[in-house]
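User: Can you write out an input/output pair for a complex, sequences first and structure second?

Assistant: Here is one pair. Inputs:
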Amino acid sequence: MKTTAFRLFASLSKIQKQHIQFFLLALGLLMLVLGAGAPTDGGTIAH
Amino acid sequence: MILVTALIAGYLAGLCWAKWRKTNWQPPVLRSFWLIFVAFLPQVFAFYLPGVRNQIAAPVAAVCLVTSQVGLLLFCLLNRRLPGMYILAFGLLLNLAVISANGGLMPISTLTAAHLIPAQKLAGLEIGGRFGASKDILLLPETIVFPWLADRFLPPGWSPYQFAFSLGDVFIGAGAFLMLALSQKPAELAQERQPYTC
């Protein structure tokens, strides 16, 4: 249990501020292009 | 898919470009970044959230789409100094124009729709109604305002993934690609704009 908690903490501590900033940037840009664009594949109808 | 591909390709091109210039890739510095999340929120409910998007009537979805795209256009204008942003904004403006002219949703003709869904399913759809839970509205080709700006383009027939996209989508993809591919430090940008002095 103690080892698992330590491993979890160790992996979390590797997440740096830059990683979070990059994730937010990628998410934001994804929202920008998906929101601005309007392609369709008929997905909800075709399947 | 076309837009996500443009983002990934732009990022990879940016990494290669930075490596060739022997520098590190720098993400674009965006002003009023929060505006993207706020502007996109209405679209989450109207087009992306399963279980909710099917419950939303076409007029409400239309209001969500237009207000959302106006917000995103404002974001583009606030960040117009970034490479590719003018192209992205132009694509968004084209989409917004055709969407607004056709009642608030992106028009797709019955001819184009026939390439995407089986004929019996298409026959069951109402002309003038939402095209599933997408941003599109199904219209007869002759009733579409600005038909060249509608979702009318298709990938080659041999492509396993078939989808319809607009001219605006092409500009948006190109703008997003350039924004990531040519992204550099603000200091580097200023340095390149200055005339060479000894």
